[in-house]
Amino acid sequence: MAFLLVPELHLLDLAGPAQVFSTAAGLGYGYELAYVAERPSVPAAQGVTLTARVDWPELGRDDLILIPGWRAPRLRVNGRLAPQTLERLRAHHAAGGTVASVCAGADALGQAGLLDGRRCTTHHAVQDELARIYPRARVVRDVLYVVDDRVVTSAGIASGIDLALHLIAARHGPGAAGRIAREMVVYARRNGDEQQESAMLRYRSHLSDVVHRVQDIIDARFDEPLPLAGLAAAAGVSERTLTRLFGEATGMTPLRYQQRLRVERAEHLIGQGATVEAAARAVGFQDARMLRRLRAR
């Protein structure tokens, strides 16, 4: 993946997503990070000068280009990109790749014409200006991020972490995103239209090592059959003890916790366009009947 650096960029706009993907790489998910700019030295808004390569790495359709935001009391003050850079963004998207932005970085996607006819968002301070400059864009307010046809835009500063965790979850599943979020000590949040706390973290505010170990197993393999006996053996306790400890820590049984993860993941897939039947199969249900029943609760 490549980060496109623009002068006066905000460090957290870059560092947040970079930390997510570098943590993913360290956990074995195969990411290689490149930092590209139109000039080899890029001043940040916080007074640090960054270095970047001026030649683009070879990118395929599975790669991501992410544009951190920059200091923008008004969008047109900074962030003007050269025609060849904008063409690079258009060509990557046209070839099936994903492009993403944090904060004012949405302006770069707008310059490339990639916001036309698409839903998008940006920092609340420049939402009105983005809508005015790009009248064909459909600016969504008060959400963390928006996904529309491999164009992913996020709100200000720290929401870049939410965006990056979403992209990890979409590609590798929520277990991977939850694992990275725990490594970074952040909440795994999703779109503002959906629940903003993942079940993986909502039921982690306890001190039981046994329950945390079992939750780790369920998080990673929630789409598989996980008999209580196997979970108890992995935790080194009896089935009765596991059920008691799990209930005390989370207020539910291991099976109910697994079902919540399945439903949460299925809701995400349905929100991305999957049918209920396809989502049910993807999360481990034999058919859609159980998923419909659980969603109705």
Helix content: 40-55%
User: Which shape, going by the Cα principal axes?
Assistant: elongated
Counted up, domains total: 2
CATH overall fold name of the largest domain:
Rossmann fold
Task: Provide a count of the helices.
Answer: 13
What is the structural class? Answer: alpha/beta
What's the overall average pLDDT, rounded? 90
The succession of helices and strands, N to C, reads EHEEEEHEHEHEEEHHHHHHHHH
**What composes the largest sheet?**
6 strands, mixed
CA radius of gyration: 21 Å
Count of extended strands: 10
Question: Can you name the CATH architecture of the largest domain?
Answer: 3-Layer(aba) Sandwich
Organism: Thermocatellispora tengchongensis
Protein name: Transcriptional regulator GlxA family with amidase domain
GO molecular function, one term: sequence-specific DNA binding
Domain HTH araC/xylS-type: 212-297
Explain briefly what this protein structure is.
This protein has 297 residues and is of the alpha/beta class.
Walk me through this protein's architecture:
This protein is an alpha/beta fold and 297 residues long. It has two domains: 2-175, Class I glutamine amidotransferase (GATase) domain (Rossmann fold, 3-Layer(aba) Sandwich); 203-296, Arc Repressor Mutant, subunit A. It is 46% helix and 12% strand. It has 13 helices and ten strands. It has helices at residues 11-26, 83-94, 106-111, 127-133, 159-172, 174-184, 199-202, 209-221, 228-235, 239-250, 254-271, 276-282, 288-296, and strands at residues 2-5, 34-37, 41-43, 49-51, 64-67, 98-102, 119-120, 138-139, 145-148, 151-154. It has a six-stranded mixed beta sheet with strand order 2-1-5-6-10-9. The protein has a two-stranded antiparallel ribbon with strand order 3-4. A two-stranded parallel ribbon has the order 7-8. Helix 2 (83-94) links the parallel strand 5 and strand 6. The longest helix has 18 residues, at 254-271. It starts with a strand and ends with a helix. Residues 191-197 have low confidence and may be disordered. It holds the Pfam family HTH_18. This is Transcriptional regulator GlxA family with amidase domain. Residues 212-297 form the HTH araC/xylS-type domain. GO terms for molecular function: DNA-binding transcription factor activity; sequence-specific DNA binding. Keywords: Transcription, Transcription regulation.
